[in-house]
Amino acid sequence: MRVVMFGYQTWGHRTLQALLDSEHDVTLVVTHPKSDHAYEKIWDDSVADLAARHEVPVLLRNRPGDAELLETLKSVEPDLIVANNWRTWLPPEIFDLPRHGTLNVHDSLLPTYAGFSPLIWALINGEPEVGVTAHRMDADLDMGDVLLQRAVAVGPRDTAADLFRATVDLIGPIVRDALDLIAAGTAVWTPQDRSRASFFHKRALEDSRIDWTWPAEDLDRLVRAQCDPYPNAFTHHRGKPLRIVEAAVSRGRYGGTPGRIFIREDDAVVIVAGADARTGHRHGLAVRRVRTEDGTEHAATDYFRTMGGYLTARPS
User: Fold this and answer.
1) Which of 25, 80, 134, 155 is the most buried (most CB within 10 A)?
2) Interior CA angle at 47 toward 43 and 51, to 5°?
């Protein structure tokens, strides 16, 4: 088959590599220009550079609505478009152009976690597994009929970086298997149960701000979801931002006011957490490592020399 690829960052790079390694002919690659957005500088293997190394024509677009792109797509006569991590909506005159339509590869187990940053949101929410879905693109975001899915379990101490590495390794196999089914005429497309669908927005600075009224179990997952190289979960101490680099749920239960810098526990300092922390029935967040505004990392037991005071969502 003649294939056009739309994609960006490492997800798109892995997709393009799978296509280049296949028996199919990659006739054109469309990708986004480099971005200074914090999340788009992470996992930023260049689709454009990979295409250029293989002498595949490349078009750079932020959005795909111009006449030149459409005419170029028509001229290369694709049998299939494959998309992965394309950041803007594709119009029907593009996704319906090839005779086999457009195969989108999304890093969640659709219909849940459609949209953006699905691995981070899934980890924050305590999902037992994450994965990758290959589905047919239609006019609704990430809602087209499913061809294939692959899942991996979420471990008890997994970070978002761990889940990225596990799921990105699924891209090559799922792309190759999907194309084999489509080329052979044996693809079975299963409609999504739209009553189960959930859609998530792009992550921004506000989404990493710690709310100490959350239970410690939720805050532990937030810290692991915002691990390096992602922008870390953060709070404020004495009016200045403080990033939480490593933490866990405390062994003991601690009562009081959420955000209180309370007590040392082993190699950590426990922060009182939970809206009902006053009852003394809640665990705290045992903070092990922090990072100050200048980028210096500290053991929490070194940074918090004395107990007392509060961590706050905003400068106090």
Assistant:
1) 134
2) 155
DSSP per-residue letters across 2-39:
EEEEEE-HHHHHHHHHHHHHSSSEEEEEEEPPP---GG
- Sign of the four-CA dihedral 267, 272, 274, 279: positive
- Nearest-angstrom CA–CA distance, 146 and 120: 22
The model's confidence at residue 52, banded by pLDDT at 50, 70 and 90, is very high
Q: What percent of the chain has pLDDT over 70?
A: 100
Please give the C-alpha separations between residue 256 and each of 114, 216, 274, 301, in angstroms, as whole numbers: 38, 14, 9, 20
Helix (H, G, I), strand (E, B) or coil at 72: helix
Q: What is the mean pLDDT of residues 155-178?
A: 98
Q: Which residues, in sequence order, are CB contacts of 32 under 8 Å at separation 6+?
A: 8, 60, 61, 62, 86, 87
What does the chain come to in residues?
316
CB 31 within 8 A of CB 60: yes
The helix or strand, by DSSP H or E, that contains position 118, with its residue range, turns out to be helix 118-124
Tokens of 27: 């006739």
Give the CA angle between residues 181, 187, 193 to the nearest 5°. 135
Contact assessment for residue 82 and residue 180, using Cβ atoms and an 8 Å cutoff:
no
Helix (H) or strand (E) holding 304: none
Furthest C-alpha separation in the chain: 69
Q: Is 301 helix (H, G, I), strand (E, B) or coil?
A: helix
Q: How far apart are CA 39 and CA 120, in angstroms?
A: 11
Contacts of 302 (CB under 8 A, 6+ apart): none
pTM of the model: 0.94
Cα–Cα distance for residue pair 15/6, rounded to 1 Å: 9
